[in-house]
Amino acid sequence: MHQSQFLDLGDGKILASIGQHKLHRKLVLFNLNWLLENSRSCDFSNGLDDWSAFNYKKGIKGHCAYDRIAGCKLVDNPNSPGKKCLLLKYDPDDTLVDDTRGAVWNFPMARSGEIKLLAKFLKGFKGAKLMLHDRWINPSDPNAKLYALFAFDLPESFGDGSLRSLTVKFDAEGNLAELYCGGMKIASAQIARKAPIGISYLHLQSLKKTQDAGMLVMSVSEEGR
Fold first, then answer.
1. How confident is the model over 6-25, as pLDDT tens digits?
2. Which of 60, 161, 180, 217 is most buried by its number of CB atoms within 10 A?
3. Is the dihedral of CA 8, 13, 18, 23 positive or negative?
4. Same domain, 30 and 44
């Protein structure tokens, strides 16, 4: 959204011009009601359009840019033939600025709410981090946990091939978030700093452990209050 411009077309419609380079310049038309939504969901039926899931290649190009590669990829959903899911796993690569694998999903800003995540933890899963932010953070940033409002560890013990339903209940004003697995609370976290306007990003990130089989994210949803 760098140096974006907006034009009010009337009837609740806004036209936005975003991007600088001619290869990345876009015109986006949206309804103002979109700004008032308080829920979002993703089952990857539109691919990775809703996600940031890349890594940076070493070597600055031009003014201040890095080339990118896909850090996470879509694979066949083993539980739903014909559908896709997101594979998050560590894959060592010394050509990258940092080879941590991550995926970031944006949802409507909320001071409190619930995030539901359906994921299959493959045998050989080596652990991951689940973080909540109030701003976009580079998916592979090794310091992402330092910026997180809430952070949870998804333990290696999850890696038994099971399909697990995770729920994060967060309350930025109450300074608390709780992680549930199958309806049972397994962890809680205190907020790391104040979040006066709320939370709007889910960030999943691999641990840097070799021979990681990874986890399959089937779907995610959020409902704010």
1. 999 999 999 999 887 777 78
2. 217
3. negative
4. no
SS (H, E, C) 72-91: CEEEECCCCCCCEEEEECCC
Question: Per the structure, how many domains does the chain have?
Answer: 2
What does the pLDDT read at residue 40? 96
Percentage, residues of the chain above pLDDT 90:
84
Same domain for 19 and 95? no
Residue by residue, DSSP assigns 192-224 as SS--TT-EEEEEEEE---SS---EEEEEEEEEE
Say if residue 89 is in the same domain as residue 143: yes
Q: What is the pLDDT of residue 62?
A: 64
In this structure, what are the phi and psi dihedrals at residue 136, rounded to the nearest 5 degrees?
-75, 135
Pair 44, 74: CB distance under 8 Å = yes
